[in-house]
Design goal:
By secondary structure, the chain is an alpha/beta fold. The chain contains 19 helices and 18 strands. It has a nine-stranded mixed beta sheet with strand order 3-4-5-2-1-6-7-11-12, sandwiched between helices. A six-stranded parallel beta sheet has the order 15-14-13-16-17-18, sandwiched between helices. Bound molecules: adenosine-5'-diphosphate.
């Protein structure tokens, strides 16, 4: 049994802005079910939703600041959570990283540097709990300084750093190396410096004993200029230490047989009941109720990464096809505006919901026939796995985790029961529209479509498989 400290800046259901929270909610739970002694540490933001049982654990003085550690548990699991309580940095409304207008908090470097120092103190048991970590597993730039700081410690735990998205690196002006009081020996080109900026992510990429990312394809992609954001050389240099492990999904929360959010539950044996969900959604979103028309859905942050620009280009042509289009998302204001303009033009064919809505995400995933995910890059992606589990056939671009989790429908894959979606290669609206046309054609062949749905629903996307791979990795450091 290993003592693992899991360092993260968000964890579902305590707080969530994206896929990192899903991983942090599920992986520690799966590892504890594999009998590991795992604790999760994260900041105590104002919006953290605990189930009420929070106790004061200890306080410590770090960098001339008095920090409290509070202890709670992940709801529905035995995983212990340590909340780093420093109100001056974390007791703010809104998002962990940005203010209500979407601007990064001005003191993010100070906030997450303090968080990292506290994580190091906990890992080394400077808080006198009789619990010193064997493994410290860090996630994304917010915890990047942890492997760097630990590298300076004698008798330190082994470190793992997981990249959930290379696009977010935690870059700050070089003056911070002084103001954050970071050890000078970390400040050089093969350390925390990146183009004369302080790079938090490099703390993980340079100093962690092992680097992981969330799919095998993304692990290769980030070693190339198109995906590496200038760090491809470093990643290629560390390729022996780098491995891609695909994320699992929460099989309890995303289960069409038990999902409490959806109008009618269904499974492989009762697939026709999926139709009732489509009707319910059409009513809810005031679209014409029509069982025959395929409903194409998209649920996403509305950012460039997700290929929203390509979807916008395709929408006028999609609106001439026999389909309905349902979109749930929030993000870039320009995308939101353009989508709103189109939705107004096609009230009978398109339903747009701007905002973040967990319940509606489930309703749509159950109701739709086709799920669009034309990402320009996608480290792992979750929605394509959720939709497969719900018999909602995904259209994805062949990148990152999408390439690893969806098998394109070809005569061969249809024949051998492995096809579960439609995969296209080029990041262009032309290629996307071709893929959409291909899905329409497949949809009209009910026999093939049903077979694909069932094969998709039966795929194993459980966390257990991924957790076993992480455990292997911990054991082999
Ligand atoms: P990313 O982490 O890049 O946003 P992922 O596919 O890995 O992408 O994870 C996205 C998660 O956030 C999924 O759980 C998805 O269902 C959810 N999500 C994204 N946008 C919304 C929204 N507007 N409403 C509800 N859930 C959303």
């Amino acid at each position: 049994m290993k003592k693992i400290l899991f360092v993260t800046s968000e964890a579902h259901p305590l707080i969530k802005t994206g896929g990192l929270a899903d991983v942090s909610g599920s992986l520690p739970k799966a590892l504890s079910e594999l009998s590991q002694d795992i604790r999760l540490i994260m900041p105590n933001y104002r919006s953290v939703k605990t189930n009420g049982h929070v106790r004061f654990l200890c306080s410590l003085r770090i960098d001339n600041r008095d920090v409290n550690i509070l202890e709670t548990r992940m709801p529905d699991s035995q995983v212990i959570v340590w909340l780093v309580d420093y109100p001056e940095f974390f007791n703010y409304p809104g998002n962990p990283y940005t203010d209500e207008l979407g601007n990064a908090w001005a003191n993010n470097a100070e906030r997450f540097a303090l968080f990292c120092r506290v994580a190091v103190a906990c890992a080394m048991d400077r808080i006198n709990q009789g619990w010193k970590a064997d493994i410290v597993h860090c996630n994304d730039w917010q915890s990047g300084l942890v492997p760097a700081l630990l590298s300076l410690e004698a008798d330190r735990p082994a470190t793992v750093f997981t990249i959930h998205n290379m696009a977010y690196q935690g870059l700050f002006p070089p003056s911070h190396i002084m103001s954050l009081n970071l050890p000078g020996q970390l400040w050089h080109q093969d350390g925390l410096e990146f183009n004369n900026m302080l790079s938090f992510i490099k703390g993980g990429l340079v100093y962690a004993d092992r680097i992981t990312t969330v799919s095998p394809t993304y692990a290769l992609e980030i070693q190339t200029p198109a995906f590496g954001y200038g760090l491809e050389g470093l990643l290629a240099y560390r390729r022996e230490a780098l491995v891609g492990i695909i994320n699992g999904i929460d099989m309890d929360q995303w289960n069409p047989e038990t999902d409490a959010y959806i109008a009618k539950r269904y499974g492989v044996a009762s697939l026709t009941d999926k139709q009732a969900n489509k009707e319910a959604l059409q009513q809810q979103l005031t679209l014409p109720v029509n069982a025959e028309l395929p409903v194409v859905a998209l649920i996403s942050r509305l950012v460039e990464q997700k290929g929203i620009d390509m979807v916008l280009d395709c929408l006028p042509e999609m609106m001439t096809m026999p389909m309905q289009f349902v979109l749930l998302g929030a993000g870039d204001k320009d995308y939101e505006q353009r989508l709103q303009n189109l939705a107004r033009l096609y009230p009978d064919k398109m339903a747009l919901t701007l905002g973040y809505d967990e319940a509606l995400a489930h309703t749509i995933t159950a109701a739709a026939d086709i799920f669009l995910m034309p990402s320009r890059f996608e480290p792992c992606g979750l929605n394509q796995m959720y939709s497969q589990r719900y018999g909602t056939i995904p259209i994805v671009r062949k990148t990152g985790g999408l390439a690893d989790t969806v098998i394109d429908a070809t005569p061969q894959t249809i024949a051998d029961n492995t096809a579960t979606g439609i995969v296209f290669t080029e990041a262009s609206s032309g290629a996307l529209i071709e893929a959409i046309k291909r899905s329409m054609l497949l949809y009209s062949n009910r026999k093939i479509w049903n077979k694909m749905q069932i094969d998709a629903m039966q795929k194993d996307f459980s966390w257990q498989r991924s957790a076993e791979q992480y455990l292997d990795l911990y054991e082999n450091i």
